[in-house]
Structures are given as structure tokens and as C-alpha cells.
Amino acid sequence: MISNGQEYYPPDGAVKYKGEFANGVYSGRGKLYYPDGQLHYEGVFYEGLFSEKGRLFTPGGKLLYQGYFHKGLYHDEGILFAGNGEVLHAGEFNHGEPVVD
Question: Domain 2-98 belongs to what architecture?
């Protein structure tokens, strides 16, 4: 059963996760936040891990990766960015590693 909800960081109550749950774990669309409230990840979760399409951000709020994930790792098509916004790799990833021809 899928339900919507939120999870909070103790003890201050900052939002840790907002989105869908299944069997008590993140599953479906959601947003994960750093303790300071900055967005960490937004996209799809499966069994608590980043899955399918999403965007991952640094603790400073910069886009680190956008594309597809499998079992929490970069996988299939995506773009990996440096801290200055420069594209480090655009294309295919396999289990977290860039595929280089």
C-alpha cells in the first residue's frame, strides 16, 4: 500500500523526507532533505533507494547529477556536474560509473 507522508529529523523536527511510502520505506515520488533544509534528492524511490529518474544536489544546493538511478547509483542516461556547474560527464552510466567509449 502506497501512502503519502513526511519524516522528520530529531530533535528539531526539520523535514527529512516528503513523499510516498510503501511498507514504511520511501517508495514512489518524493523529496529528501539535508538536516539544514536544503534539497538533497528529488525523484523516484524504490525500497528506500534512489531509482528511475531524479536529481541529486550537493549540501550547498548545487545540482550534482540529473538522470536515471538504479539501486541508489547513477545508471543509464544522465549528466554529472562539477561544483562550478561544468558538465563532467553526459551520457551513459553503469552502476555509478560513467561509461566512456
Answer: Single Sheet (2.20)
